[in-house]
Amino acid sequence: MPQSAPISGELVIPSHIGIIMDGNGRWAESRGQPRVVGHRAGVRSVREVVRLCRERGVQALTLFAFSSENWQRPAREVQMLMRLFITVLRREVKLLKKNDVRLRVVGDISAFEPKLQQRIREAELATAECQGLRLNVAANYGGRWDMVQAAQQAARLAQQGEIEVEAIDEALLGRFICLADQPEVDLLIRTGGEQRISNFLLWQCAYAELFFSETLWPDFADDAFNEALTCFASRQRRFGKTSAQIMDATLS
Ligand code: FPP
Considering the entire predicted model, what is its pTM? Predict the structure, then answer.
């Protein structure tokens, strides 16, 4: 069950925010620029949102940087994105460390070129002791992939005779799902006007509140972020219970 969110001032702050950063390509194209210019501009929004999450006391932020399906984009765009990831990881790691942000990359990184895999490992290691915000970057990630890899780990335990097949329940499978050591996602934000989940943290978003923003990712800054937080704070989260039960529990 998701953990309860801490209170900051008047606002209930989500413990874990997931973001599908959409709209980079359209942002660039509307300026007559190549799509990669939009991805580069998107890095500025990443920095800004990390800062805002730290400021607001959010515990974990997970960003969808590259989905398992993004390999189907034109080869040149994929190549540019890979180069951008390498540059960003090298350039930002000091700043993350200074701000006590712990980075983790989730997804099948074995598909990336060795240099990128190495940068990922170095950045994770460099920030491993940080105690502040958990910044997770989903790269070559898919929610279905995540469930399959978890099922495989559980099946392996059963095959080795360490558990009975019947012991595989939600709690056990959940231990193998990416980010099991962090709160479940409370708030899922998607920018860029589309309203779908696109195979992002399917398991972890089971009870997430969804917020869809028209703002394209490179334009996403404090106003849009605050709007998402305000909207989240106004939602009644019932986790399957009735509204009356939730009201009773709040009053008691
Ligand atoms: C979706 O916009 C965006 C991406 C697939 C890439 C996002 C990557 C970054 C912002 C770089 C951040 C880097 C790190 C390491 C966190 P889109 O291209 O689908 O936009 P469109 O819908 O307008 O075409």
Answer: 0.92
Amino acid identity for residue 87 in this structure: T
Q: 98-134 burial, b if ≥16 CB within 10 A, otherwise e?
A: eeebbbbbbbeeeebeeebeebbeebbebbeebeebb
pLDDT for 177-226, tens place per residue?
A: 999 999 999 999 999 999 999 999 999 999 999 999 999 999 999 999 99
Phi, psi of 35 (to 5 degrees): -55, -30
- State the closest ligand 1 atom to the C-alpha of 63, by its place in the atom list counted from 1: 16
- Return the residue whose CA atom lies nearest to atom 10 of ligand 1: 42
Burial call 197-212: b when 16+ CB within 10 Å, e when fewer: bebbbbbbbeebbbbb
What residue has token string 């060795």?
114
Clarify whether 70 is annotated catalytic. yes
- Identify the residue whose C-alpha is closest to ligand 1 atom 19: 22
The pair of three-digit structure tokens given for residue 16, joined into one six-digit string = 């874990």
Element (H, E) at 20: strand 16-20
Structure tokens at 39: 């991805």
List the domains of the chain with CATH numbers: 11-141+185-234 (3.40.1180.10)
pLDDT tens-digit profile of 4-52? 454 455 689 999 999 999 999 999 999 999 999 999 999 999 999 999 9
Say how many Å lie between the first and final Cα of the chain, rounded: 20
d(CA 13, CA 8): 6
